[in-house]
Amino acid sequence: MLLRYDPFREFERMLQGPGPRSAMVPMDAYRKSDRFIVHFDMPGVDPGSIDLTVEKNALTVKAERNWQPAEDEEVLIAERPQGTFSRQIMLSETLDVDHMEAVYDSGVLTLTIPVAEQAKPRKVEVSSVNGSHQSIGAGNTEPVSS
């Protein structure tokens, strides 16, 4: 469902070099029945700044979190990353990205991507020389009456 290896990620990090760069967005991904679900942690992000782009099988998630202290505020500690957050994942062609849903709630962006119809298990009818039929596949090996 999700391609685990991205050969360009390290190359991109090398090109960026030292200095400001996009913060990585932590994620969890799993399959549940006929859906693929991905959770991205994005606390404090304005939902209007979230940008999802799918190009071929590459899904890119970008968002911004900015905090500018007021002139009368003296910053003592500033550890929370600010700026642009991004994450790109490679999706399998077995997913139906045209029917993907995205929901942002409590700092978590959840994407639900259905498995494409052609990738779902299906039964295949097998006929024999004597004309009887049997359905085989997806956990069912019971004969089907003709």
Note the main attributes of this structure.
five-stranded mixed beta sheet; rod-shaped; 146 residues; disordered C terminus; 2 domains; 11 strands; Immunoglobulin-like; mainly beta
Walkthrough of the structure:
The protein is mainly beta and 146 residues long. The protein folds into two domains: 2-115, Immunoglobulin-like (Sandwich); 118-146, no CATH class. It has one helix and eleven strands. It has one helix at residues 7-16, and strands spanning 2-3, 23-24, 27-32, 35-41, 51-55, 58-65, 83-91, 101-105, 108-114, 124-127, 133-136. Strands 1, 2, 5, 6 and 7 form a five-stranded mixed β-sheet that branches. The longest helix has 10 residues, at 7-16. Residues 16-21 and 140-146 have low confidence and may be disordered.
